[in-house]
Amino acid sequence: MAEEQEGWVVSYNDETKIRLERRETAAGPVGMRAHNHFEKNALISSKAGLRETMVGYYTSHGRDPFGAIPLTFVVRTGSCDPEFARWLESFEELRAKKESVWLVKPGDKANQGKGIVICDSVEEVREAIDSKSRSWVIQKYIEKPFLIHKRKFDIRSYCLLAQDPAGVLHGYFYRQAYLRTTSSNFTLATKDRFVHLNNDAVQKHGDSYGKYEAANKMSLSEFQLYLDAHHGRDCLSIHSGLLPQMKALMADTLRAAGNKINPHSIQHCFEVFGFDFMVDENFRVWLIEALAEGLAGMSLLGSGGGRLNFGVYVNLSFLSSYMTCSVTQDGGNAADAGTTARLQSDVAGVD
């Protein structure tokens, strides 16, 4: 393990990353230290990193990555980047099918909807990616989302990745996912951020924030009641329909990054990731992005739309709220349909 090797120390550990340095260390016993981040968490928590991690993993297992994440391109040198030319080809192909809406997002760890531009033309995309020298992702917008009362939503779900003393990674799924709703009816006739972006940091500035759901949040139980009332004939179930897809995508993500996320084998690492999912009109789940939440920043939906904030302590009651979904570092193929199906065997009822 890195911290047992002479001269290696963790010199920095903030809310988003840790850093290793070689230093002269004094002889003597060292107390056990836990680190609430993995060294290479950007493989999951940055938009560009997630795209490359998932594409590498799925293609190595013979699967189309863009059946799990929307079609996404990473550009690092603006419109001069060869990936931009490849995006242009896809843009023209999809525009011929009357699908022309894309999202341009910062490729690093920007969150809260910052820097996201809604585009439906080559000129808009080019202007966005040339506006600043940084990595950008160009991601296909889901133009036919599943709606609640004609409004768009996404699902925020949490996952804990922890490493045991033997160096084995374990993933845990938090049952109490919740929906983040918009306050305006969905339409492609506008690029209004209040219509298209579910980020709370965006929605809370709208005049209708909290008008339909408290804090624009809905629990899974409330969502199931909506499905029963408005889609009864379709027999849509969160328990058997949505959760298995979400957990399989989470497990694939953790497996994709598993053998690279802790390259110096730092002991006693753990991290909470927030996963954002979209659901399309066919009740298919898409992984949009993942964030390095950190326990201090983790907030979950409480009764009456309020929010429950977890402290920074990890204790048995906290862990008991998670359920394991097996994660390996040895290239286990969760992308295989049979494997992903077995990951769902421990699912409890919707809370």
TrEMBL record:
Name of the protein this chain belongs to: Ttll1 protein
TM helices/strands, residue ranges: none
Species this chain originates from: Symbiodinium necroappetens
